[in-house]
Design a protein that fits this description.
The chain is α/β, with parallel strands linked by helices and 334 residues long. It has helices at 27-38, 53-59, 67-73, 86-94, 110-113, 134-142, 161-171, 174-177, 184-199, 201-216, 221-230, 232-250, 253-266, 269-284, 286-296, 300-310, 313-324, and strands spanning 4-5, 19-23, 42-47, 63-66, 76-79, 103-106, 124-130, 149-156, 179-181. Helix 1 links the parallel strand 2 (19-23) and strand 3 (42-47).
Length: 334
């Protein structure tokens, strides 16, 4: 069984006297900074000169500094900028200001796991990873509840890295819901696998392929969209609330029968073999090497794939239908 920690297991007073720098003020950055501030921590935000988030962070009542200055004065540095930006920012603005007694933190283990960032051994290196988007992390904290988090310790120079990470997790509301202990490797590998096989890659490909199949068979694109895309949220919400059994309990018997008969036809031995291959590529670092190389080249394949995906038929049909459903608060990418 996993080790799970709650409020009673964390000592918030460990944050007392610690100067915490939150690097980045995007989805996660703003939530970490505001939740920690509201928990009584001494927080500053590190941003690059000209960042669009600078004025927003100041408007939220936070002190904002260039990244290097924030890191120079901080005892604790939490890195919450995109994975692909982290190595360069670390080398230029974080590493020169590291010293014994400081703590370096992350909310995702990618760059530590794959050696893109190699901290000196005199540091505590830990991770607190909320399992929700930043806006939800903030909303739940304000409501007096919390978001489950993952916690990992990569380096424990002080012999207190875990205790401090738990205090940090409590400061952002994580111990209200439960903090699960893991490792940088486990968090990174399962996160990448989940994104590629289920949450993004698998779901996106299944939805679009099913939509295209119905449309090519002569069905109206709008009907295909509702059946293959729109109603997916209804099913996922049921899973979210009560797992697969509750979802099956809540749908019709016909839909449940289709679950049992259709699923094995889609997820075949060949599919499972591909999953194993994808996991092996993640574990070996082959996937990370491919993505790092793509970024180094300026993302030519990625940018072209993104352009094509945004111009697909399901995206155009969905955009028109969502504009009719104003209660969804539909979002569009310019």
């Amino acid at each position: 069984m996993a080790n799970i920690y709650y409020d009673k297991d964390a000592d918030l007073s460990l944050l007392d006297g610690k100067r915490i720098a939150i690097i980045g003020y995007g989805s996660q950055g703003h939530a970490h900074a505001l939740n920690l501030r509201d928990s009584g921590a001494d927080v500053r935000v590190g941003l690059y000169a000209g960042s669009k988030s600078w004025a927003k962070a100041e408007a939220d009542g936070l002190r904002v500094l260039p990244v290097a200055d924030a890191c120079a004065e901080a005892d604790v540095i939490m890195v919450l900028i995109p994975d692909t930006m982290q190595p360069a920012v670390y080398k230029e603005s974080i590493e020169p200001h590291l010293a014994p007694g400081k703590t370096l933190m992350f909310s995702h283990g990618f760059n530590i796991r794959f050696g893109q960032i190699v901290p000196p051994d005199f540091l505590d290196v830990s991770m607190v990873a909320p399992k929700a988007p930043g806006h939800r992390l903030r909303e739940l904290f304000v409501e007096g509840v919390g978001t489950p988090c993952l916690l990992a310790v990569q380096q424990d120079a002080s012999a207190q890295a875990k205790a401090f990470a738990l205090a940090y997790a409590k400061g952002i509301g994580g111990t209200r819901a439960g903090v699960i202990e893991t490792s940088f490797a486990e968090e990174t590998e399962t996160d990448l696998f989940g994104e590629q096989v289920v949450l993004c890659g698998g779901v996106s490909a299944l939805v679009e392929s099913a939509f295209n199949e119905l449309v090519s068979a002569g069905y109206q694109p709008e009907i295909a969209y509702f059946e293959c895309m729109h109603e997916l949220k209804l099913i996922v919400d049921l899973m979210y609330q009560g797992g697969l059994s509750y979802m099956r309990y809540s749908v019709s018997d016909t839909a449940e029968h289709g679950d049992y008969t259709g699923g094995p036809k889609i997820i075949t031995d060949e599919t499972r073999a591909t999953m194993k291959k994808m996991l092996a590529e993640i574990q070996s670092g082959a996937y990370a090497e491919e993505w790092i190389d793509e970024n180094a080249k300026g993302r030519p394949w990625f940018n072209e794939r993104r352009r094509k995906a945004r111009s697909s038929q399901i995206e155009h049909v969905g955009q028109d239908l969502r504009r009719m459903m104003t209660w969804l608060n539909p979002r569009e990418i310019e």
